[in-house]
Write a structure and sequence with these properties.
single chain, about 160 residues, mainly beta, Pnp Oxidase, Chain A
């Protein structure tokens, strides 16, 4: 769809938070920038997360492996560049960063606003993304800071 339509301009104005999704598979760990995350339930607590189809991380999560979401703060714009390009399987995603390990041994950013540890309860493919419904099994507020919010110019691309 053309990115310069009134529809795409309006859709792009739907705000979202920015997160670093971390996952593991065997002895491999990776992280990716995620912007389509939304709380989905109170009891049990749950979120939805959309991951572009074809990303190997989507396959890891679809297998039922736990994942974590580091909630980025407004002052963490450097993480956009670090995680925005993505990582190849086996490439170290967290090298040089200060991290903590969750109860499932997943890396999260120690200077994030907080983190949520999740386990997938189901998914559905929607166009070019896979949407995961995940139960939040653990988490912690790490510091008082405003979360980073992102508003796109177009609903046709990131």
């Amino acid at each position: 769809m053309n990115a310069d339509t009134p529809l795409m301009s309006a859709l792009g104005r739907v705000p979202s938070g920015l997160f670093i999704l971390s996952a593991s598979h065997g002895d491999q760990q990776t992280g990716m920038l995620a912007s389509w995350v939304q709380q989905a339930a109170f009891e049990p607590p749950a979120v939805t997360v959309a991951v572009r189809l074809g990303r190997y991380v989507a396959e890891w999560i679809a297998e039922g492996r736990p994942f974590a979401l580091s909630i980025l703060a407004e002052d963490q714009k450097d993480m956009l560049k670090h995680f925005g390009r993505g990582f190849e399987p086996g490439e170290p995603a967290f090298e040089g960063l200060s991290i903590l390990q969750t109860s499932s041994n997943l890396p999260v950013l120690s200077d994030a606003v907080g983190y949520l540890e999740c386990i997938t309860r189901g998914h559905v493919d929607s166009g070019d993304h896979r949407i995961f419904l995940a139960e939040v099994t653990d988490g912690k507020l790490l510091r008082e800071a405003a979360p980073m919010v992102y508003v796109r110019k177009s609903g046709a691309h990131y």
